[in-house]
Each structure stands twice: as structure tokens, then as C-alpha cells.
């Protein structure tokens, strides 16, 4: 299984380059299924077209429109392979058996029935599948949201029992930090599913969290590589090497974050449930949560959400605050998350202290803290994000192999 992202297929020349790489894999004796994204900024251009037609495009029609990007790339790559003498055939997501939930623009894969894929492989074809898309039970085209092509590739790899799923992108692999912020960020030779899942959910955009979840569930090794070089890349598997455990592996940051605070919350049983249950029922994901010490029977309750959900969450919270007798709601959209990630690192004394001291030395104030066995996340001012990432990368000596 091979997946190529939008930058890898952005031009006809790059599509031909991808075809040569796919042909090389086929010549090595492997059956090959390829999943492709839309070319370059095609999806953004399609969104812009819809916005020029109407301010509120229906989600069903948006899915039909946006799926066109991948269904253009797939036949182009199949054509390039055929021109090289390699038997190939392109399939849309529904033809490849990608069955999804009903939710438009953010559907989840519920089943994969790759009957046509298996048949074409048996005929000796390379199968090129349009990623990011599927079909729901009403036979409407759906899209899988950001990172949907990754999810398509891993789901197909799991169903086909592929020995490996290669994810080709425009970076050499999984790096210790965003190279746009830390130019000397190092490519990790390997990383565990658990670490990669946290990095992906904390802002690292090389892999989508859902794709990593599926890979871990079915134990499909993922190999993240650059489509523009022959560098070895990063292997994502169930366990990281013993020598890499109990240490920080990478720094992640996310700036599309907002903090909401319910002020003057009555401190009594059931209040937290009254705040968070309506948000959960509306599909709003809550991340870092902090409750202040109760004074005189009231407290403040703060948490973070994705910035795109902040307005809806704030509107709901204002009603909730009135219902529970809280004083009001405050929002802050000028924050960011910065995290250090590494398997078992909280069992290693001093790792958390080093993070806090590094941020303090850089004159960066910590507003909230969240921890797990493999990560520590701090909420900081958004304007300090780059300085924080650089300071932490230096502190943990991540440029060192």
C-alpha cells in the first residue's frame, strides 16, 4: 500500500515521478494499491469556488464537489503508469468499497469491502484509489475531513492485510519539531503508534490521528517518507526501541485553540457533568481542563476547544451558565498548546521540571497544564509559540541522535 499526498502529485511532472516510484515497487514483485490526494491546492480552490456561488453551501453538495479533486488525480496517475507500460486502473472511493457514516464533510469509515480492488490486483493491475472519500448508506458521496487520504490508505491496508503502508509526503519523515520553526529538527528513524497518535492529535500534521488509530488496531506498520528523495524516513510500529523509551521524542504545537472559562461555578456534585454533557452531545471535543480551588462555595472551570468550535461552545456555555447559576463565561482565542511527547517519560524524574524551567527562562507564562504517561501539554500565549518550541527543542537536546 502506498499513499501520496497533494504536494507529491501537484503537477504532471510530479505525477510522472510518482508513477516511476510505483512502477519500481511493482517491478520488485509486489502487488500495489495506491491512494492519492487532490493535486496541490485543488481542494482549496474548490472551496473558494463554492464560496463564490453561495455563502452557505450545503454539506452534501460540498462533499460531491470536493471529492472531485481526488477523482481527477487517480486517473491521471493511472494514465502515467499505463504510458510506462504498467497495467493500472483507477477507482473512486465508492468503487474501492469505502463505506462511511452519513455525516457529510467529516464522515468516518464504517466498513471497507474491497471486492473490486482484489479482483483488479488478481488481473495484474496496479490499483489507484481516490482518497478522502467514500459513500454512505444512502449512496451519497462523503468526505473524511482533514487527513482523509491517510485514513483511506490505512483502512484499505488493514482490510487487504498489507505488509506495509507507505505514506509519501513532502517532509523526510516524522521530525522532532516543525522544521519551519526549528530548521535543525531531526528525522526520527522510528516511533511508536502511541507517540505518533499523541503528536498527530497535538498538532503534528504529517499523519492524521484516525489513520494512526486504525494502523495500531490492525498492527499495520506505517512508513512515512519523502516522495522527493530516497531518505529512509520514519517507521511507525507498536513499540519504539528500548533506548528511546523514557525520554522526550518530539515537540508539537497547535495554534488553532481557544480557552473558555465558566466563572463563579457553584461547587457542588453534578456541575461538571451539567457543563460538559451538552458539549459532548453537540460533538464539541474538549481538551485541557482546569478547575480552580473552591473559595466560598464557588470556583472557575476552564477548558480548551478547537478554535473553529469556540463560537458554538461559547453560545452553549452562556445558556448552561444561566441554568447552573454561574456568574458568566469568558473566552480567549489568543492561546496555543505546546507539548513534549515520549513513551513512558513521566516515569523519568525531571522531565516535567525541565519543561517548566525552559519556558520560564524564555519568559513564557504557563496558563494551564495537562499530562499523561507520554506527554505534557502547556497552554501559553499564542505569540510565544515559536519561542516555546525552540526553547524546548534545545532543552531536551532533540537535535542530537
CATH topology of the largest domain: Carbamate kinase
Q: What kind of sheet is the major sheet? A: 8 strands, mixed
Determine the number of helices (DSSP H or I, runs of at least 4 residues).
11
Fraction of helical residues: 25-40%
> What number of domains?
2
Mean pLDDT: 92
State the name of the first-level CATH class of the largest domain: Alpha Beta
The fraction of residues in strands falls at 15-25%
* Strand order within the widest beta sheet: 3-6-2-1-9-11-12-10
Low-confidence stretches: none
List how many beta strands DSSP finds. Answer: 18
Provide structural commentary:
- This protein is α/β, with parallel strands linked by helices and 401 residues long.
- The protein folds into two domains: 169 residues, 3-Layer(aba) Sandwich (Carbamate kinase), CATH 3.40.1160.10; 145 residues, VC0802-like (2-Layer Sandwich).
- It contains eleven helices and 18 strands.
- The strands form four sheets. An eight-stranded mixed beta sheet has the order 3-6-2-1-9-11-12-10, sandwiched between helices.
- The radius of gyration is 23 Å and the shape is globular.
